[in-house]
Specification:
The chain has two domains: 69 residues, Rossmann fold (3-Layer(aba) Sandwich), CATH 3.40.50.1000; 66 residues, HAD superfamily/HAD-like (Rossmann fold, 3-Layer(aba) Sandwich), CATH 3.40.50. It is 40% helix and 16% strand. Helix 2 packs across helix 3.
Length: 178
């Protein structure tokens, strides 16, 4: 949606849906200043009763060949900055998502493995949920980073250490095929 007029005074005149009680920020390749303004207006109108929810804090998404694009965390941070409040993150590393899935499908954490390529989201979520963790070294995280966390005396950094790692998910598929 475009901004409703040429000036900021026009932008705050657009009608708001009275039923909206939450602002959800997820991956949106069409994120715009107009959407940011609308999100802020809903949050200001609703005050603390209007929830600010983010799907995740991934700061960038890796692409082949070492390229990357901004991730959802950049959009969440923009809305948090405008609203001057922190979003409740329902995705990794928060255990909210896992708890919902575990209740619905009777998941046994002792028989579950979290596979991912990020220490600060995938591995941290697995460790927060008491799952076995497997890091894939796809270019987001390096083995040197893992070793740095492993050698640290800081408990928060130790929670970023996976149980296992593989160079590629293909390595895991090969083992599972045996």
């Amino acid at each position: 949606a475009a901004l409703p007029g040429p000036a900021p005074a026009d932008w705050v005149q657009a009608p708001l849906d009275p039923a909206v009680r939450a602002v959800l920020v997820g991956f949106d390749e069409h994120f715009s200043y107009a959407k940011l303004c609308q999100a802020l207006r809903y949050l200001l109108r609703g005050g603390p009763d209007c929830l600010l929810v983010g799907t995740n804090r991934d700061h960038r998404l890796p692409l082949e060949g070492g390229a990357a694009i901004p991730g959802t965390g950049c959009l969440v941070k923009a809305v948090e900055t405008a609203a001057q409040r922190e979003a409740f993150i329902v995705g990794k590393p928060n255990r909210f998502m896992f708890d919902c899935v575990a209740r619905e499908f009777d998941v046994d954490p002792d028989r579950t493995i979290m596979v991912g390529d990020r220490l600060d989201t995938d591995i941290l979520m697995g460790n927060n949920c008491h799952l076995t963790t497997l890091l894939t070294l796809t270019g987001v995280t390096t083995l040197d980073e893992v070793r740095g966390h492993q050698d640290s005396d800081c408990p928060a950094r130790n929670r970023l250490v996976p149980d296992y790692y593989v160079d590629s998910i293909a390595d895991l598929l090969q083992v599972l095929g045996e």
